[in-house]
Write a structure and sequence with these properties.
GO terms for molecular function: oxidoreductase activity. The protein has 425 residues and is an alpha/beta fold. The protein contains 14 helices and 18 strands. The protein has three domains: 202 residues, Aldolase class I (TIM Barrel), CATH 3.20.20; 80 residues, Rossmann fold (3-Layer(aba) Sandwich), CATH 3.40.50.10860; 107 residues, NAD(P)-binding Rossmann-like Domain (Rossmann fold).
């Protein structure tokens, strides 16, 4: 099976030369196809011929008819199988698509595709994910298999959409012709798209032993969290590794259970460490690692290795901890073992300037209280990358001295995670 071709959609804010720069940048990052949609751009906003010189061009009719110049320049022409009438397109260019308004059974989906298509046409079937369950994912995989059997293995793409659809899209992508992904930043053409960087990394470093899912060490890996675009986990762990960035109120418990046949492990980060500890029946207050054990998840907290690294580098025996979430649980365990005196401070409990040594555990997205001030305190930051730099600026502004120890935490806990995932069954 040829790997799915990575498709990025031109953002609606980009026109003319900016659109060309976007296409060139996307190509340099691993994109292979550029989609231009009539609901996002008027005919005169882009130079279709120039764009086609940078990436293969997919033009999609969404309400407004396709401009002839777009069709002439395109490699594929996307028209809706239900609403586009006779599906007219130049020979060999048709991508027939359907966007279902609700989750469908496989038989319902197949009836929609009981149409005659021109030779060489591609097929794209899209459904909202609906309830996160093993059964729902199985239905989508069955629909994909049946459409491939009907139209040909090299012609079909099946997509899921929704706030928690990303891992399902990643599973489906293994047998799709096209993989619609997001370049990054705030723009995504559809909810559930994974990042171009993650899809490209997987294509360049495929799993060395492509075993059937459910057998031993097969299956995907991923990090689960909210606002994790900065995460370095996909760069250091074995591929395929997905960055599953989902809303804070997402049904993460149902999602991990539904993904059990397809994933052999998860890294868990804020805000799901405590919720998944409860869900898996862990004796720990918070966990950061899930490992597949045939028909269940076993949970661990390798953050203790990271906490030990940070406490040793901070070198204090009496300190405060800002926040009392998942990371704090690991600090509490290790601090007790090391004989440290720890004060865990929630935001509402901070009323005066803090001195001495401390650890900042709040994620970057959480606004610290206005009352927070430091008097020369040394503050360990356990985030890394851009979020760590923003936190460090905030600490300095409030009178503290930041110590960027997030990389040390991350590497120590990730090393243990990798070893645990190798034991998956």
């Amino acid at each position: 099976m040829t790997p799915a071709r990575r498709v990025v959609t031109l953002p609606p804010s980009l026109r003319g030369p900016e659109a060309l720069r976007f296409a060139a940048d996307a190509r340099s990052r691993g994109a292979e196809v550029l989609e231009v949609r009539t609901d996002l751009h008027p005919a005169d906003a882009v130079d279709a011929s120039a764009l086609a010189g940078l990436l293969e061009l997919l033009v999609s009719e969404r309400g407004t008819p396709l401009p002839p110049a777009w069709v002439a320049a395109a490699r594929w022409v996307d028209r809706d199988v239900v609403h586009a009438g006779d599906l007219a397109a130049p020979a060999g260019k048709l991508l027939a698509s359907h966007h279902a308004e609700r989750p469908l059974s496989t038989e319902e989906a197949l009836r929609l595709w009981d149409v005659a298509l021109p030779a060489g046409s591609l097929v794209k079937h899209i459904e909202p994910l609906g309830v996160e369950s093993r059964e729902r994912i199985s239905v989508l995989l069955e629909t994909q298999a049946r459409l491939r059997a009907r139209f040909g293995e090299e012609r079909v793409t099946v997509l899921a959409m929704g706030p928690t659809a990303l891992p399902v899209r990643a599973v489906l992508a293994r047998r799709n012709v096209l993989d619609y992904v997001a370049v990054g930043g705030d723009w995504k053409a559809a909810p559930g798209q994974r990042l171009l960087a993650d899809a490209t990394r997987e294509a360049r470093h495929p799993h060395p032993v492509p075993l059937p899912e459910g057998e031993g060490k097969s299956g995907r890996l991923a990090i689960l969290g909210t606002s994790i675009v900065h995460s370095r986990s996909p760069r250091i762990h074995r591929q395929p590794f997905d960055r599953i960035d989902i809303p804070e109120d997402a049904p993460v418990e149902a999602l991990v259970d539904a993904l059990l046949p397809h994933y052999r492990g998860f890294a868990v980060t804020s805000p799901f460490k405590m919720r998944l500890a409860r869900h898996t029946g862990s004796p720990l207050d918070a966990i950061n690692t899930l490992v597949r054990r045939r028909d269940r998840w076993e949970s661990f907290n390798t953050d203790t290795a990271g906490a030990r690294s940070v406490l040793e580098r901070l070198g204090a025996r009496d300190m405060f901890v800002l926040g009392d979430g998942g990371a704090s649980a690991a600090i509490r365990v290790v601090g007790t073992e090391m004989g440290c005196q720890l004060r865990f401070l929630r935001r509402a409990e901070i009323s005066g300037p803090l001195s001495g040594s401390g650890i900042w555990t709040w994620p970057d997205r959480i606004t610290p209280p206005d009352t927070l001030r430091f008097e020369g305190a040394r503050i360990a930051v356990i985030a890394y990358g851009a979020p760590a730099r923003r936190i460090a600026t905030e600490i300095t502004r409030r009178g503290g001295t930041p110590l960027l120890l997030g990389a040390a935490w991350f590497i120590a806990q990730a090393r243990q995670q990798r070893a645990l995932w190798e034991t998956a069954s």
